[in-house]
Design goal:
single chain, four-stranded antiparallel beta sheet, mainly beta, 475 residues
Length: 475
Amino acid sequence: MTRSLWIGIWVLCGSVVFAQPNPLTRWTRTIAGDSIDTVTGIVQTGAGTYLLCGYTGSWGAGGWDMYVAALDSLGNSPWYRTYGTPYHDAALAIRRTADNYYIVTGYSQTQENGPLHVYLMKISSLGIQQWNRTYTGTAEEYANDVQQTTDGGYILTGASDAVGQTFNIYLRKTDAQGNPTWTRYINHNDDAGYSVQQTADGGYIIAGRTHYFEGDGYLVKTDATGHSQWTKYIGGSGDELFRAVKQTYDGGYIVAGKSNTSSGDDKPYLVKTDSLGRTQWTHTYGPAGTSGAFYSVDILADSNYIVSGTLRGHFYIARIDTDGIVRWDEEYTNSTWSMLPYAMQPTRDDCYIMAGYTTSQTHNWDFYILKTGRDRMTAGIEPRRDPIPLGYALSAYPNPFNASTTLSLSLPHSARAHIGLYDVSGRQVGTLADGVYEAGEHRIGFDGSALPSGIYFARLSTPDFATTQKLMLLK
């Protein structure tokens, strides 16, 4: 097995490009091996640097192996690492953790012809393992997504055949070291979870698919212990499947996937629901006679949605407004047989990075990464130059203080943030912040002149992080 050279294509952006809202191509990169290789997740690590994960048949211990690689600001890879057994292993999602490490999940096969087991590992920015967990048993189980929870642990979703005759949604909560806290199986008929997020109330939202009603998109809301609060089967007479979900600023959900109800061909599909999963609107995208699907969705600071996937066998990305209307969209092709981006992320320089695979002349899958030009609707006239924090933080200065102090709130991305004020008995005595804040540093004044002297606690909570700052009020 041999590793090919990186292949790069640069498009210089002149004044004609800047006159268009569509982000054109900034660069692309391909890694071509001698087997099946694909990127399944990507995350920004610094100013223009990234970590990607996936699986490879070209390098590693044998079979398929988990693959993690770094990219610099030009898309060059200073290093890559593989992890796994001599059998089949895959990394299917990667996320940044609050302490600036990275959590990776997928599956591992520990014996030849044995079942797949859910795998979880924490790595540094250099890909060095801090710990790993393989959750073994007799069932076939795999994880498609992972998110860090507000208590520092992790929530995973995927599929398992541990209960009944078919696969069911798998939901596992772990502590900060990956030790299992609880596991739930949400079953109807041949189900899988593809995306999970902790919600503002401490519960979880899962998006996936079910064959309970001939193949529908499946949306499940659970409480903090993984027990279902409600389920929704969303779709028409055809087949639907959900790949990604995010809680929106109004407390509802935006869900991305595919549907073939309206045309018979799979179409990129977007659904907006309220907080109880009731559908507010649905849209399919792409010209008549084309097929495709969405695999990723994110929410921009102006409440628009950025979605990516495949259309006509090309990389496809679209900015969608809050009514589901396209503001701009773009297809990217490199003249190969087909391309598919499993992962997408907005970048700190107002661009987007997409990653997945492209087929080669031998019809193998090769790693493929594309960075777009700037989204002019997001960027304004000049690029954003203020640094974006790498993680969450909450601090106060001065502290101790007499009557008033200033809280400093750091957010690595736009998020809903709540800061409650509590006394030593745990009773909430005030709210210092509650709303959606853009990525960056924020200053929040606190006047404690109406409170008695003593120790207080400011607790920050966002959908994926929580921390507490001790405050000492002296009069």
